[in-house]
Specification:
It is built from twelve helices and eight strands. By secondary structure, it is of the alpha/beta class. Helix 8 links the parallel strand 6 and strand 7.
């Protein structure tokens, strides 16, 4: 089982959109996939059509109340894709976790105690570097970092990379960067091209070749409770996520060897 945290402490970078659509694309290849919604906003759960009535148990109960992960798993409309949903209760988890034993390893322990198995686990992290994101990084083998093509992109990324180094040093020496995905790419905007060039100059091959364009169908899909790949599989955004998933799969053998 490979565990990948989808993380960026900056909001509005397409993190949840990436998590939903990469998970869907991976499931379409025949892999069994679990998406863990670790964002208190619960957008990944909503975007996969999981209503509040289906969220009897959530990531909050798994992290704070020691509820077994298996009890919180919900099947989605996408074949081979399951989710552990989030509720607004998770917004208070940062404070409650402080007083719990092994507060940085709660998610890792829950995954290791699961009696079920998936080929790939994706964790949709909140837009912060608090205890929820740290739990994800401790549990993960690698990070997928969505990065918006805007002026402050590299500044925020350096902050994230510093956090990764601290997690490696203290908790999870095997944590790696699977790749950086450039999102909200607008070919009509010269600044977008410049930011993309700067990111590639700094990070080199860590950056995926595939870029995710600004696309209205990507924005519309969550309101229908569907991944864009199902809502409109022919739109440019869906095609880009399919290509990104293909690249990601190509990097997984190297990740497995490193482990």
């Amino acid at each position: 089982m490979t565990c990948i945290a989808v993380a960026n402490q900056k909001g509005g970078v397409g993190k949840t959109t990436s998590a939903i659509n990469v998970a869907t694309a991976l499931a379409a290849t025949g892999s069994s996939v679990l998406l863990i919604d670790l964002d208190p906003q619960g957008n990944a759960s909503t975007g996969l059509g999981i209503g509040q009535s289906q969220r009897t148990w959530s990531t909050y109960h798994v992290l704070v109340d020691d509820k077994p992960l298996d009890a919180a798993v919900v099947a989605t409309k996408v074949p081979r894709l399951d989710i552990v949903p989030a509720t607004v209760d998770l917004s208070g988890a940062e404070i409650e976790l402080v007083n719990l034993d092994a507060r940085t390893h709660r998610l890792d322990q829950a995954l290791s105690q699961s009696t079920r198995s998936w080929d790939i686990v994706l964790i949709d992290c909140p837009p912060s570097l608090g205890l929820l994101t740290i739990n994800a990084m401790v549990a993960a083998d690698a990070l997928l970092v969505p990065l918006q093509c805007e002026f402050f992109a590299l500044e925020g990324l350096s902050q994230l990379l510093n956090t990764v180094e601290r997690i490696r040093a203290r908790f999870n020496p095997g944590l790696s960067i699977l790749g950086v995905a450039l999102t909200m790419y607008d070919r009509r905007n010269r600044l977008t091209d410049q930011v993309a060039a700067d990111v590639r100059a700094v990070l080199g091959k860590v950056v995926f070749e595939t870029v995710i364009p600004r696309n209205v169908r990507l924005s519309e899909a969550p309101s229908h409770g569907l991944p864009a790949l199902i809502y409109d599989h022919r739109c440019s955004g869906s095609e880009a996520y399919i290509a990104l998933a293909r690249e990601l799969i190509g990097r997984l053998p190297a990740l497995a060897r490193a482990a």
